[in-house]
Design goal:
Helix content: 55-70%
Largest sheet: none
Strand content: under 5%
Number of strands: 0
Shape: elongated
Order of helices and strands: HHHHH
Oligomer: single chain
Structural class: mainly alpha
Number of helices: 5
Mean pLDDT: 88
Length: 130
Amino acid sequence: MPRPYQPSLLRLLHGATALLVPLAWLTGLLVYSAYDGRFGRLPITLPGGWIDIHGTAGVVLWPLVLLFTLYAVSAGRARLRQPANALALLALALAVGSGKLMDEDWLSGGQFHHLVYSVHLLAWLLIAPP
């Protein structure tokens, strides 16, 4: 039986991240539309609670991103030479790191001027599908 192309830990971390990142991105879009919306809002209004789902996705992503980054920097260093891989990992680390530094009351209070929130939005745009 042939050996898998990628080690099991990498496949597990990559798969879990690949499932959670779109969830976080989509819930982030709903949160942005509901609270900020400076550059446009979705034409639909959905019931609240999306900010909690978005935060939960971030909390679950935090240890995965940490392990994934450690793995990528050590064993997967050659793959990080590809700009797409390096940009995706950087955007993911920025999104989760800045999300951990945010206060969830900022958005409901209309406080969109924080640098950490701007970094979070930038990371959100970098992760956006092409």
